[in-house]
Design brief:
single chain; alpha/beta; Rossmann fold; Dihydrodipicolinate Reductase, domain 2; 2 domains; 8-stranded mixed beta sheet; 6-stranded parallel beta sheet; 14 strands
């Protein structure tokens, strides 16, 4: 094609990284030049499939090349220093969720990105999914009047091949951060930051002392947006290891909306009627649309706004940070206080906070 293509590398080829490689190969704005994974054979096989260079060392890949953008599928603990090196080399970044292990780390990455004048995006593919776009339209059009309750449930298979996920220093958090990030993003994207969060966490450790050294395997969050609007989120292990389930229900005075990646349903209690439609969740297609938005925001920024910037995702991480703090203190915590602490130290603004 005649238009410029972005010289691109992918760091990390786990299941998420492979999805990114596949999606990038289908989006015409990317020229995939290299892939890297600490498992050299995985990188070699992927490179052969997509006709690019293979590396088993992130540092070497970045030192020997200059890219327009780097797509990061690796967990942050395994590539933090290399991610910073890429930013300093003026590489635009797209990171799979979560973008960081905690709020403070995300702020540091944002400040570095801002100083270097590059885009840092977070891949939130649900923002491009049919079912969740239908929910957003319902909310934006005001068809769910006087929303008073949002309930969210995540049932997830236990990770058996990722020991690092149980280590708080490496993972930053457990099921809430790594498995419920999409639900938190949809909550904040559609309804804003809750005023208060009260959280309880638990893990499978055998005794009280061990529990301090493991991330949570289950979590319950109570959320207060106002005196007339509350919500809750539960995250727990699933008995169905093949089919994790994420469901969000939005309750208005007369109308209830139920949404999951594969289903959208509306029930009108006033008239006793409802509709339900299947929405096949095309994960690869949604990732392609996320990548396309990222590419267009780099190539033609005046005409294409970035859909999910890191600074916007700071609100998600503030909610998660407040939840972990609440679980430690046993008291409700306010996510906006996390954001206000940042504001006192910074000049940048974030969406939805103009006071």
């Amino acid at each position: 094609m005649g238009e410029r293509r972005l010289k691109t590398a992918v760091l990390g080829l786990s299941s998420g990284g492979k999805l990114v490689v596949e999606a990038a190969s289908q989006v015409g704005y990317f020229e995939l030049q290299a892939v890297a994974d600490r498992e050299g054979q995985v990188a070699e096989r992927t490179a052969q499939e997509y006709g690019c260079e293979a590396y088993d060392d992130y540092r070497q890949l970045l030192a020997q090349n200059q890219f327009d953008c780097v797509l990061v599928g690796a967990p942050i603990h395994s590539c933090e220093e290399h991610l910073r090196a890429a930013i300093r080399k003026k590489c635009n970044i797209l990171k799979l969720w979560p973008p960081a292990r905690n709020f403070e780390e995300a702020v540091e990455l944002h400040r570095l990105s801002e100083a270097e004048g590059i885009k840092f995006a977070v891949a939130n593919p649900w923002r491009f999914a049919e079912a969740f776009l239908a929910l957003r339209e319902e909310v934006e059009q005001g068809r769910v009047e006087h929303i008073f309750l949002v309930s969210m449930r995540g049932d997830f298979a236990t990770e058996v091949d990722s020991a690092w996920r149980a280590d708080p220093k490496l993972a930053g958090g457990g099921v809430l951060l790594h498995r419920c990030y999409g639900l938190v993003d949809q909550l904040v994207w559609n309804f804003g930051v809750p005023a208060q969060v009260y959280a309880l966490n638990v893990n499978k450790a055998g005794d009280r002392q061990q529990r301090f050294y493991r991330t949570e395997d289950a979590a319950v969050l109570a959320l207060r947006f106002s005196d007339s609007f509350i919500g809750y989120l539960t995250a727990s292990p699933s008995v169905d290891t093949e089919a994790p389930k994420e469901v969000m229900e939005v309750f208005g005075t007369y109308r209830t909306v139920t949404v999951s990646p594969n289903c959208f349903a509306v029930y009108d209690r006033e008239h006793g009627s409802g509709e339900q439609r299947g929405c096949e969740y095309d994960e690869s297609g949604c990732m392609q649309r996320a990548l396309e938005n990222f590419a267009l925001s780099i190539l033609w920024p005046d005409k294409n706004a970035l859909c999910s910037s890191l600074v916007e995702n700071l609100e998600n991480l503030a909610v998660i940070e407040a939840s972990y703090l609440s679980a430690r203190t046993g008291m409700p915590e306010e996510p906006v206080r996390v954001l206000r602490m940042l504001r006192r130290e910074s000049t940048f603004m974030w969406p939805g906070h103009n006071e």
